[in-house]
Specification:
Two copies of one chain form a homodimer.
Chain A: E1 10-14, H1 20-28, E2 34-38, H2 41-49, E3 55-62, E4 66-67, H3 69-77, E5 81-89, E6 93-97, E7 107-110, H4 112-117, H5 119-125, E8 130-133, H6 137-146, E9 150-154, H7 156-161, E10 164-168, E11 178-185, E12 195-202, H8 209-219, E13 224-231, E14 239-246, H9 252-264, E15 267-275
Parallel strand pairs in A: 1-2, 1-3, 7-8, 7-9
Antiparallel strand pairs in A: 3-4, 3-11, 5-11, 6-9, 6-10, 12-14, 12-15, 13-14
Amino acid sequence: MSETNLVEKKVAYLGPPGTFSHSAVLAYFDGGIQLVDCPTIDDVFTAVENDEVGFGVVPVENSSEGAVNNTLDCLVNTPLKIIAEVVLPIEHHLMVKAGAQADQLKKIVSHKQSLAQCRKWLSKRWPTTTQEECASNAEAARRASREDGTAAIAGKMAAEVYGLDILESAIQDQEDNSTRFLVISKSMPASSGRDKTSTLIYTENRPGALFRVLEPFEHNQVSLTRIETRPSKKDIWDYVFFIDFEGHISDESVKQVLKKLAECTVEVKVLGSYPVANTQ
Amino acid sequence: MSETNLVEKKVAYLGPPGTFSHSAVLAYFDGGIQLVDCPTIDDVFTAVENDEVGFGVVPVENSSEGAVNNTLDCLVNTPLKIIAEVVLPIEHHLMVKAGAQADQLKKIVSHKQSLAQCRKWLSKRWPTTTQEECASNAEAARRASREDGTAAIAGKMAAEVYGLDILESAIQDQEDNSTRFLVISKSMPASSGRDKTSTLIYTENRPGALFRVLEPFEHNQVSLTRIETRPSKKDIWDYVFFIDFEGHISDESVKQVLKKLAECTVEVKVLGSYPVANTQ
């Protein structure tokens, strides 16, 4: 049995190969791993839950587009823990089949969101070229590798996976466009000394509920880094809060906050304590 | 000049005809209006801003799927005001060309989100039938009206617009599935006695910022009905808060809250004070 057949050496990610999630896997893991690409975010969670792989990597937030709701909704039900975050700058490139020339270009394909993120550039440089949406940037790159006259907008990783030439680099309209990914697994790491904690909080649906959730953070000087609201899916127009804050669950101040929250909310689920990404 | 050529009688909505936004228009307006269907949410805002129409209707939140981010992002930049909300129960139906039979059905088409909302029902009733995504439910209905063997999943309105027969009703997996729509225009209505106010709040990106935003609400006993976070698009990993609360800007308690917020935040934009929908 080779080393890479061990479950703990297998990493599932949102595929197909060449996605930004694929890049996030390579940025976080040191090598000696076996990659498993999954068609959906749900499938990544399921693969880790069923011990088919030891780790999963999924996008959770883009700096321009906001939360990835599908990942948040999966976090509600999973017993898995977040063990790390990876922040990647998102750069889009225009790429074509190796050797193809710009003047042969008839069509530009990419994921809807990527076409949107390059809208100004496209209308300036390729105003009359047909645009076509497809399921992912990696799928766009795969098509560009097979179809004459088709260019893809995708990340560098996709160009490498499908052997494409990059015609123009960093074509996204917005600078500072980054995506945050989560690494999920079955057990939580010990404190690194510079951690954050992610929680999911259910409150009673009554006036002042969120204020009472935030009071213990203020009282214990624990800084929130992010708050997101999602439908609870229990009652109509009822919400859950995803609250991220500085510190590890083994910190005294965090213990105090969690103790107080247990008293004033319906439920607090700790999704994980993990090191803050260096790139933030 | 006929009455329906007056700008104030024209209503733009997220089309094509047969969408739930179309139903929301008919639920809110009394008739004597001219409908203008727009291909995107941005186009609805632009039509009202440019005085091509007097009102716009866009979806803002679904009870299962959460916020419609595109609408929130449009609200950031628009000078328009929210003048009303409309809450519609969302029921999906399976529909075919008039006279077509269930046993001729080869393909089911709908918007990705609607296919997802009927996933369990589809896997039970039509486990082997091909599913195909398209741009909107109304577009799916239009296709079903033209293609033999194609059924659409869409709302009742779409069946009426495209003259389809409903084969099976209320097929969505989740009961209590509703969508909230906003009516936007250039001026704000006076207090109705039972109103809510929507605001957009920019805070400094420092510890305790959100707590200080919520304090004046708690102090003045003004109840929050909803909070959403979106990327500010000014700085990376910087957020704005969409906060809805009970009361009208002409109420003394609301005036106090807004005064205090002006002192402790970077900016507060009032998006509108408008009557609470009856169906909530």
